[in-house]
Amino acid sequence: MFKALELSRPDDHFTARLVEMADSNLPEVAGNAVVLAVEFSTINYKDALALTNRSPVVRKWPMVPGIDGAGTVLESADPTYAPGAKVILNGWGAGESHWGCLAQRARLKGDWLVPLPEGLTSRQAMAIGTAGYTAMLSVLAIEHEGVTPASGEILVTGATGGVGSIAIALLARLGFQVCASTGKLGETAYLRELGATQVIDRASLGGPGKPLQKERFAGVIDALGSHTLANACAQTRYGGAVAACGLAQGMDFPGSVAPFILRGVKLIGIDSVMAPRAMRMAAWTRLARDLDLEKLAIITQCIGLGETLAWARELLDGKVRGRLVVDVNA
Q1: Which of 52, 114, 179, 301 could form a disulfide with 198 if both were Cys (CB 3.0 to 4.6 A apart)?
Q2: What is the CATH number of domain 2-116+296-327?
Q3: Within the chain, which residue ranges are assigned CATH 3.90.180.10?
Q4: Taking a C-beta distance cutoff of 8 angstroms, is the pair 214, 231 a contact?
């Protein structure tokens, strides 16, 4: 038997509860199935939406949420992973169309997994989670476009969130000057401790703006979308790069083509859910190398599996700073 969070919708009435299940309840997967003893998971924004039923994230019922997981392989039909191997899951529809990792057991496709990098523990991997992995994909994207510390200042929006917090820590460690945009100016000391050199009020970016504005940023990592993304593009310097990885403000993009055709700005979409394995491996290798792991203690809170429902509401209400790690055995 194992513990799991179960989301169900009998007669269109949503319920979320902590239950005990038998291993035989785990859904089958076609092909190279791996059974994982989950050690740690997380609550990401998408998990919080699923746990509170505030958005139609879940596509099959009942569902065990949890798009992230790290733990030890118990059984494997995949030759890549022998029992005892330490692995990580990020995305691939877990918690949406396939049972995820807010549970003590998970049956997953081997193709969805990556090895836990040397130097990281399962808990550290989940302190990073999809948020940190997305931040690293964003850093890789702007680096690929030639943005270096010598290019100039980098803007990070949604700075106190999981993606923003880890993006700041990564960029600072790599030698960039980082401007953090936040609606929580009371967290300025926290952002500076992560490595931000300047902190600005998100209100300066959050409303309608001109198609072209004063050139400021060599690169942008944006987790908000909507007006914030449009204004960030309008303030990006000639030849700069903008990595769009989130939609916390909205899915719309009320912007103009002007930055792209007059300044050569590149707008790069970041997808962490279905990213190919080679890209995932590259991101996790760089995270193990380039992230100051001591910063994870500043960014992270650890909670138990039974606490996740209450914390999911706090996350959606903007009351959580950084990352929530879930110890599924606590």
Answers
A1: 179
A2: 3.90.180.10
A3: 2-116+296-327
A4: no
CATH superfamily, domain 129-269, is NAD(P)-binding Rossmann-like Domain (3.40.50.720)
Q: What is the pLDDT of residue 306?
A: 93
Rounded to the nearest 5°, which phi and psi values hold at 327? -85, 105
Q: Give me the half-sphere count of Cα atoms (radius 13 Å) on the Cβ side of residue 221.
A: 34
Token representation of residue 269: 């979409």
The residues pairing with 83 across neighbouring beta strands, listed in sequence order, are none
**Is the per-residue pLDDT at 318 higher than 90?**
no
Question: Could you tell me how many residues make up the chain?
Answer: 330
- Tell whether pTM > 0.90: yes
Q: Which residues pair with 105 in a beta bridge?
A: 37
Q: Is the peptide bond before 62 cis (omega within 30 degrees of 0)?
A: yes
- DSSP secondary structure string, 28-58? P-SSSEEEEEEEEEE--HHHHHHHHTSS---
